[in-house]
Amino acid sequence: MGKGVSLVLAGVLAAGALVSPDAARGSAAVGDHVLFWGDVLKDAYRVSGGAPGPLARAGAMMHLAVYQASAGVPGRLGPINRNVAIDEAAHGVLTAVFNRTDYPTFSLDLRARYDVARAEAGADPDGWAAAYGRLQADTVVRARADDGWNDTTPYTPGTEPGAWRETNDALCVPGKAVTPNWGRVRPFELTDVASVVPAFPDGVRTYSQLLGNERYQARVTEVYQYGGAAPTGPADPPTLRAEDQTRIAWFWANDVNGTYKPPGHMLELTEAVSRVRGLGQAANALLFAEVAVALADASIASWHAKYLTPIDLWRPVDAVAVAYPGANWRPLSATSDNRTFSPCFPAWVSGHASFAGAWEGIMTKWFGENVDFTATTDDPHAKDQERVFHNFRDAALENALSRLYLGVHYRFDAGDGLDLGRAVADRVHGAVTALPAPVEHRVAPGTAVRTCPGATCAAVVTVDQLGAAGWSFCKKWGREADGWWYDVDVYWRGGKFVGWVPDDRTNLRHSYLGKCVY
């Protein structure tokens, strides 16, 4: 079992006492462009729905591009408007990720949000900041294009007792295992995913060992007692879950579409702490990049545990059916119209707990353990509720144990998920600042520059044919042998053409560019 989760059930009840909201929540002011785009990201989560892994990946991509646009502008190349660079980076990533092919019903007007941000961003007379921000977006999108996010290799559930199978409820029907290949996605910062995945409790490696394990049997009994839906008739088993434990279960759920899902919840709490501590835009850019990358890598590692280890653990609803035949037990977890369901992927480890541990780890490294903050939620069963916390560990622990109270996880799913997330945070913290130095490129007149209005390069022009002062345009600059070209904006500035071009020594994970003087 994970460290820190061996408390009795009542031991965390005081950690997040329910409070009444004083006022309706509002979105972040455009004054901080990092927070503004963070709110846009959460709205994108709400309208797109789906599994938490792809959403966490989108958040890491956006916040990495935003951080690079904010912090990566080489100072010796002159000042630029960082607000504009951030707007272009965020908008570029979001429009690339939430495209109509992959998200055909995506309804959020990203252009309208972009227009709001740019209206308050200030001047960018040369288009220099916009070019830099767009290039950061393009670099991140290209870097993640082949990371395995769209692997649809089929998954065949197990049939022996203990092995996960679809629970055949409101949201989990046969053939619908959710993102079974997510554990194979290339991480952002982790170099060895398996190194952060704990061993299954008590060294269990087979389902026969699982069913005979005393700890497992005790945890099935526990979730039976504390995680069931309230009885609606004499045949339904009673629940020992306290009233506040029920509130905890719903507060942290955010499982259904229309919410910002677990990654969005962690980003929402990050914003709450940022506001309490009065962070500025530059600090927010780095903080959110670290949190978002930790969440993304935690999603990959936790899905590795779920699908790529010896035990693909069945959900409590199936375990209880075997341990308590005829009990008519159902988990508390339900859709907004109260149809019972269990998340459609294996139980161990808990994704919520993994996200919580990763978030706790990054936040503690930034602020220390003890910070007072108020948490909110999107879950329809906890509408307008808030909970007050005094440290990050209590919030993370409550989040993890909420899954037991909701009836969809065992206690060791929570503990091991927390440990996994904290291990991810240890590896992510400080890593996103390890960036290459800028390089100045000099290109002689007559150098060929290909124009690529679409996916195919259509023409070749030379630098001395680029045109006159007062306008800018997009060219493609890159290595034709590699099959791709960079977008590069070229401008007339100070009596010469200047533009952003890639440093060939820079990999596609970060693109820190130098000034090209023609």
From TrEMBL:
Domain Phosphatidic acid phosphatase type 2/haloperoxidase span(s) in chain numbering: 334-425
A Pfam short name: PAP2
Listed InterPro entries: PAP2/HPO, PAP2/HPO_sf, V-haloperoxidase
Coiled coil: none
Name of the protein this chain belongs to: Putative secreted protein
Organism of provenance: Saccharothrix espanaensis (strain ATCC 51144 / DSM 44229 / JCM 9112 / NBRC 15066 / NRRL 15764)
Source organism phylogeny: Bacteria, Bacillati, Actinomycetota, Actinomycetes, Pseudonocardiales
